[in-house]
From TrEMBL:
Subunit structure: Homodimer.
Keywords, alphabetical: Aminotransferase, Cytoplasm, Glutamine amidotransferase, Isomerase, Repeat, Transferase
E.C. no: 2.6.1.16
Name of the protein: Glutamine--fructose-6-phosphate aminotransferase [isomerizing]
Provenance organism: Thermococcus nautili
Biological role stated in the UniProt entry: Catalyzes the first step in hexosamine metabolism, converting fructose-6P into glucosamine-6P using glutamine as a nitrogen source.
Domain Glutamine amidotransferase type-2: 2-219
Length: 602
């Protein structure tokens, strides 16, 4: 949530910054701001609206200077307005900064600063940081010392980009529990919340860790520890994403592009983990106390993982919402625990907090992550990458199916290591998993029929998604996709729960989406569908059975697979259905209201 982009070099800074802000729009925001510096003077422009709107209204591209920082803000303290937008500055007007995160003790700090004569313009916690640095400058030998002293007084999360007029050759960037990465160029350098912001210019990056800051000039960069000021040796990594990978490639929306990328990225996920999955499985095989923690779509992936581990490896994990985990399970975690953390960005605040708790308690932590070098990978003992590439649409699609692929591979390899399943069966599962990308290519041919189906459903205001067993997480994820981008109320649940309450809401024409692969509960599922149909439900069924087709009002034919593998292909039509309903209702599926791609505050 929120985005930062900083630049120093020989280009016109405002142009680089505005381009970068455009590429950070997926993170969610309500206002935009830029600060540049030239000849010892700060130029600040900021306002509520989209990057395009603010750029046009305030003429951001006319700002002078060859260094500066920009920001897209998601309000946490202070309402969204022009004054509360970033950058924020100190009393002297010499310090300007942008901030992602939440300062928990800002009210106490602000009170102290007001008593010392500081005046504030905004209601933000961010402005406190600028004034705090200004105050520390009075008793410090230099700006860097003042910066360190000020930031060590903060409690909370912060990623910062800072311009100081008295040091015209450099910028400062700071990270603590909010993502920040440096981009290393030739005669120019960058910093941003995420790599696509500067990928047009460089693919060489340095990831900052918590409580680290960077001093960046156009020719050099150095990373230091906030507590001590000591230099930290950092590895420059090369990102293999191209700029084109972060663009729409001819599709109307990023979400649709990313849905269609799933066959390719699933192959990447399977191939990319083939050589490492065995070592990971052997290292975690002896753990019996297993927790899976995640948020949002990744949580649904965790629920699928639970079924996979139960069925194949005979393990019984607890799956918990990461925001609840550290409050409810702190006393149950110890050195005999395995915590599997699933996070697309590797920066999800609640998931990181759960991981840190697990580490403090001595647990083994395995992260399943998309973004190389992200914070989750640095906390974890073990990491499996999903290899999905950048996902710009706020609603997760390809990152979900690649998470499922990795979890499936892990469960198969654990079963092999533990001897809990027949080897021939495991080989058959592996072979069919490698077929899934091809099967999804066939499913994507249903795009137009699904758009036509959506035409007839676009005015409905309530949907139910039902499944049994390993199909329940697919029902939950299908419902989440629908409500987050189409703004239609949707409820996902176990089909067996229908008669325990939700059936009271079923009436003529209410769409009920049934996830019904062949398997151990298929006959029960048919009975649940009949119950809903008898109350007037409009049945939209996904499956491969002719009996299912007969009871359906709309039938989406799916490949005939072992139900263990069905969560990956079965979600794809539901992603497409949600996408088309969103577009038909006039919504932008890439930027749903009130949501952000990467939730980096708790």
């Amino acid at each position: 949530m929120c985005g930062i982009i900083g630049y120093i070099g020989d280009r016109k800074a405002c142009e680089v910054i505005v381009k970068g802000l455009k590429r950070l729009e997926y993170r969610g925001y309500d206002s935009v701001g830029v600060v540049t510096e030239e000849n010892g003077k700060l130029y600040i422009k900021k306002g509520v609206g989209s990057v395009d709107e603010v750029t046009e209204r305030l003429k951001l591209l006319d700002m002078p200077g060859k260094r500066g920082v920009g920001h897209t803000r998601w309000a946490t303290h202070g309402v969204p307005n022009d004054i509360n937008a970033h950058p924020q500055k100190d009393c002297t007007g010499k310090i300007a900064l942008v901030h992602n995160g939440i300062i928990e003790n800002f009210a106490e700090l602000k009170k102290e600063l007001v008593e010392k004569g500081h005046t504030f313009e905004s209601d933000t916690d961010t402005e406190v940081i600028a004034h705090l640095i200004e105050e520390e400058l009075k008793s410090s030998e230099n700006f860097e010392e003042a910066l360190r002293k000020a930031l060590l007084k903060l409690k909370g999360s912060f990623a910062l980009g800072i311009v100081y007029t008295e040091e015209p050759d450099r910028l400062y960037f700071v990270r603590n529990e909010s993502p920040l990465v440096l981009g290393i160029g030739e005669g120019e350098n960058f910093a941003a919340s995420d790599v696509p912001a500067f990928l047009e210019y460089t693919n060489r990056v340095v990831f900052l860790d918590d409580m680290e800051y960077a001093v960046v000039t156009k020719e050099s960069w150095v990373v230091k520890r906030l507590e001590t000021g000591e230099e930290v040796e950092k590895e420059v990594k090369t990102i293999d994403w191209t700029l084109e990978m972060a663009e729409k490639a001819g599709f109307e929306h990023f979400m649709l592009k990313e849905i269609f990328e799933q066959p390719r990225v699933l192959r990447d996920a399977i191939h990319g983990n083939a050589k490492v999955i065995g070592d990971v499985a052997r290292e975690i095989a002896d753990y019996e106390k297993i927790f899976i923690v995640a948020m949002g779509t990744s949580y649904h992936a965790g629920l699928v993982g639970k079924y996979l581990l139960q069925r194949l490896a005979k393990k019984v994990p607890i799956v918990e919402d990461a925001s609840e985990f550290r409050y409810e399970f702190e006393d149950l975690i110890d050195e005999n625990s395995l915590v599997i953390a699933i996070t697309q960005s590797g920066e999800t605040a609640d998931t990181l907090a759960a991981m840190k708790l697990a580490k403090r308690k001595g647990a083994k932590v395995l992260a399943i992550v998309n973004v190389v070098g992200s914070m989750a990978t640095r906390i974890a003992d073990l990491t499996l990458y999903t290899h999905a590439g950048p996902e710009i649409g706020v609603a997760a699609t390809k990152t979900y199916t690649t998470q499922l692929a990795v979890l499936t591979m892990l469960a198969i390899e654990l079963a092999r290591t533990l001897g809990t399943a027949d080897e021939e069966y495991l080989k058959e599962l592996e072979e069919n998993l490698r077929r899934v990308p091809d099967l999804i290519e066939d499913i994507l041919n249903l795009n137009e029929p699904l758009r036509e189906l959506a035409e007839g459903l676009k005015d409905r205001e309530n949907f139910f998604y039902i499944g049994r067993g390993i199909g329940v997480p697919t029902a939950l994820e299908g419902a989440l996709k629908l409500k987050e981008i189409s703004y239609i109320h949707a409820e996902g649940l176990s089909a067996g729960e229908l008669k325990h309450g939700p059936l009271a809401l079923i009436e003529d024409g209410v769409p009920v989406v049934a996830i019904a692969p062949k398997g151990r509960t298929f006959d029960k599922m048919l009975g649940n569908i009949e119950e809903a149909k008898a109350r007037g439900a409009h049945i939209i069924a996904l499956g491969s059975s002719e009996r299912l087709r007969e009871v359906s009002d709309a039938f989406i034919e799916m490949p005939d697979l072992d139900e263990i593998l069905t969560p990956i292909p079965y979600i794809v039509p539901l992603q497409l259905l949600a996408y088309h309903l969103a577009v038909l209702r006039g919504n932008d599926p890439d930027k749903p209201r009130n949501l952000a791609k990467s939730v980096t505050v708790e």
